[in-house]
Amino acid sequence: MFNLHSCYVKELDSSWRMDRTITTNDLLIFITSGKLIYWVDNEKIPLQQGDILYIPEGSLRSGAALEYHQRYATVFSSTGADQGLLPILDKKKTFKMKIQNSAYFKLRFSQLTHHWQMKGPYLDTTCYAILLEMLSMINSDLDHRELGTRKLKLVTDIQAYILKHHQESIKLQDLSDYSGKTPNYISCLFKQVTGFTPIEYLHDVRISIAKDMMLSKSITVREIAEQTGFCDQAYFHRVFKKVTGYSPTDFLNEKYG
């Protein structure tokens, strides 16, 4: 489990300076407003609103404000077991990035800070869970960045194609013909980015639409199965239960009490 040494939010004016110092534990900083500069192992790193900076233990750092700024920060250390959970902890390398869902990330950092300052029950467990989620978000965004924008666009285009044609019979070869990539390449890339195979994603889309139809329209399950692209009602029942964990009948019974 991570050892959390401190967690805080600070507002600092343009006079803020920090002399060169050794980073004794891992440091994670999130800038929510303003601008400043860090130097880490003689590398100049400009920071502004929305930037995240990770500095591993042992790094030599200093800093200076360019204007008023606000930052969230947490200082922590990780054991060998923790380092195996996420590549960023294993690599121990300084990096700067912008998180995709910055509003949610700020919310989680704020909650981490709150729990740390309140020192309430289950402090270690709660802080560990929040920090692990935050680091997982960072690692996920870094993984996506490494995939490259072209690959991400390809997956996004395939998702849009599936949404548009979900009522039709879609096979992996159809997605291959649409994208100009081999079925195996599409399947592997799609799984890497989304966690689903293209067909699993198709089923998830269809069942999500089917559930909305059950809640808002007075039509039969057979009609819903046909309108969401399933070849027959029995197949619809099997996929519905696989995706949701319960049958369409159970879902409708829950709806109407």
From TrEMBL:
Keyword Transcription: yes
Pfam families, per database record: HTH_18
Domain HTH araC/xylS-type: 156-254
Keywords on record: DNA-binding, Transcription, Transcription regulation
SMART domains named in the record: HTH_ARAC
InterPro entries xrefs: Homeodomain-like_sf, HTH-like, HTH_AraC, HTH_AraC-typ_CS, RmlC-like_jellyroll, Tscrpt_reg_AraC-type_HTH
Protein name: AraC family transcriptional regulator
Source taxonomy: Bacteria, Bacillati, Bacillota, Bacilli, Bacillales
